[in-house]
Predict the 3D structure of the following.
Amino acid sequence: MKPLILHVGKGYWPNLGGMETITRQLAEGAVKEGFEVKVLAFGANYSRETLNSVEIIRVPTLFNFGRAPISHLFRRIFNDLLENADIVHFHYPNPLAELVWLTMPPGIRKKKFCVCSYQSDPLKPKVLLPFYKILTRAFLGSCDCIVASSDQYRLSSPLLRGFKDKVRVIPLGVDTPDNLEVSEQDRTKMGNILSGRPSPRILFAGRFVYYKGLEYLLKAVQKVKGVSCILVGDGPCRRELEELADRLGISERVLFPGHLEESLYRAVFERSDLFVLPSVYRTEAFGLVALEAMAAGMPLITTEIGTATSVYNMDGVTGYVVPPFDVSMLAERITDLAFNAEVRNRMGKNAYDHVRKNYSSEMMIEKYLDLYRYGKG
């Protein structure tokens, strides 16, 4: 009988996001190695479907409490799925899932191997943080293994310090460039979408949320004449970012194409010149999209916020690392890369080589499979 892994997260593909992507990679990778895999996530409605041999069960979200989805069906469905699961893999933070797990009978919990992929320390909403930290410590204490995405985050997280014997580091990974070919049709279509925003092009992709620091990127773009900026994605900050671009007088140089289908998403990386991840808070624990940019041969500009963003991006080698909130330094480094093709190409090649050697999805999946098979090892 195949061992059954139950992934529990906020979302799953085709929902876009770093953890959604990682969950899909781990789920499909485990299926290929002989595991049975199910995923419990939130959605607009209740649904069950099978994608690439992974069964996905989505429970309806009644409302969000802070940023936490709440569903009246979650506990019942989780109980049903847990019965046959050998391994339960939580993707933190997900408060309802963590609370439900803690209220399960200890005898049931002890029969399961519990893994937690620790995405980031909670920072908001501040009024609820003291209570959520209590819940988090209890939840982490109940896990058999906690996985951090970088050694830097493991050492700097106040919540992880109390569980150093349980924490192991497995860096995130992305598909190798061999799997990211762009068709001529998509290349042409993306060229039409980007018409009017000529090179050099700055790219950002992700959710438009407070910790991404996108307002500082727009202010830096204002200072650098002659560059275009492509902001792929969507989120609660989109309207204010569009209004800010208008106030700064750079609307004609900034494009908000929204979410892109997978093939066009790959094409926009090929059509851009450098990638900027201007995050300003530790909620950005890793920034998987920056690895995707590196895999496409693009140099990076990231920020030093005490997380992996200044680990995979080696300052002066694969790109530049700047202080968060520093518009002037960000503008200076954008200028250095945008208008110096020799530096841009050299750093882009270094980024490409670095991600293939150290951050492939195959490496990440194999390390998680070892964890599933052998426990803490």
